[in-house]
Amino acid sequence: MIYSILNYLDRKGLIGRASAHCDIPCGIYDPGPALIAAVSVVRLMDIAHDGASEDPVALANLRARCTLRKEEEAEKVKQEIRVIWGDYFKAPLLEAHPNVHGLVHAIMQKASACKQDVHREDGVALVELVNEFAEIFWKTKSVETVRKTCPYPPQLKLVYPVLAD
Amino acid sequence: MQPVLSPGTFAIFRRSTSYRDGDVLLVKHPRFGTIVKRAIDVNAESLWLEGANASSLSRETMGPIERTRVQGKLVYQVAGKN
């Protein structure tokens, strides 16, 4: 009841706004960390699959580490994308790019799939989805992008901004 | 400021002449605009701020705050239905 009244007054513009969330509006947004995390998921899947140690304990240790880090990197993808989608994309940008909602949802789902299992195709698909998100993001800033093979394993194509200087 | 304040919460602040460490303050920050953060190291002329969440900006990033920039301290909040 009280919330409804306050909400009504807020819609009338009678209540001021303050930022209390953690990512204070510093205006710095970049899909780069999400891409690095996504490609790390693929790399960790590869390492887990390629574990060649003959020592079963060492192999179990390696795979446990990969699984733990894969979980963290996939969660980082979700967090980084959520922040850009939730805080950077305002109404005009969403109207210009109406597919962002569906794309973000697909990223959330695919990142979860990467956490649940070790299917490399899920990891590669996650990278591609984040690539698409990065292209849209840079487009909103009128920055051209290019797809280049990242200079480290797993050497997948990543979206990079073409900056003027 | 999660878990102290969630997005969409209505918060009521009261002006005061005395602020203490731990008070949740409404501050007109010279760089970050109107923000809500917790007071630490309060002294006669200034104070420092910190967030309630580990991923908040650091106190050093927000810098020392003149007391005159403090608009009030949190006395009541009405959270939305989640």
Q: What best-fitting shape of chain A do the alpha-carbon axes yield?
A: globular
Mean pLDDT level of chain A: 91
Helical amount among residues of chain B, as a percent range?
Answer: under 10%
How many β-strand runs of chain A?
2
Largest sheet of chain B: 6 strands, antiparallel
SSE sequence of chain A, one letter per element = HHHHHHEE
Class per helix and strand makeup of chain B: mainly beta
Going by CATH, the architecture of chain A would be Up-down Bundle
Name the quaternary structure. heterodimer
At the first level of CATH, what is the class of chain A? Mainly Alpha
Number of continuous helical runs of chain B: 1
Rg measurement of chain A, Å: 20 Å
Biggest interface in this structure? A-B, 17 and 24 residues
**Number of structurally distinct domains of chain A:** 1
Question: How is the main sheet of chain A built?
Answer: 2 strands, antiparallel
Percentage of residues in strands of chain A: 5-15%
Q: How far apart are the termini of chain A?
A: 54 Å
User: What is the fold-level CATH name, i.e. the topology of chain B?
Assistant: SH3 type barrels
Structure summary, number of beta strands of chain B: 6
Shape of chain B: globular
- What gap, in angstroms, lies between the N and C termini of chain B? 17 Å
Describe the structure using short key phrases.
heterodimer, A: Four Helix Bundle (Hemerythrin (Met), subunit A), two-stranded antiparallel sheet, 6 helices, 2 strands, 6% strand, B: 82 residues, mainly beta, SH3 type barrels, 1 helix
Give a brief outline of the structure:
The complex is a heterodimer of chains A (about 160) and B (about 80). Chain A is mainly α and about 160 residues long. In chain A, about 65% of the residues lie in helices and about 5% in strands.
Overall description:
The complex is a heterodimer of chains A (165) and B (82). With 165 residues, chain A is mainly alpha-helical. Chain A has a single domain, classed as Up-down Bundle (Four Helix Bundle (Hemerythrin (Met), subunit A)), CATH 1.20.120. Chain A has helices at residues 2-11, 32-50, 56-88, 91-96, 100-116, 120-140, and strands at residues 145-149, 157-161. Chain A has a two-stranded antiparallel ribbon. The longest helix of chain A has 33 residues, at 56-88. Chain A is globular and about 70 Å long. The mean pLDDT of chain A is 91. Chain B is mostly beta strands and 82 residues long. Chain B has one domain: Roll (SH3 type barrels), CATH 2.30.30. Chain B is 5% helix and 43% strand. Chain B has one helix spanning 59-62, and strands spanning 10-14, 24-29, 33-40, 46-50, 65-66, 70-78. Chain B has a six-stranded antiparallel β-sheet. The mean pLDDT of chain B is 84.
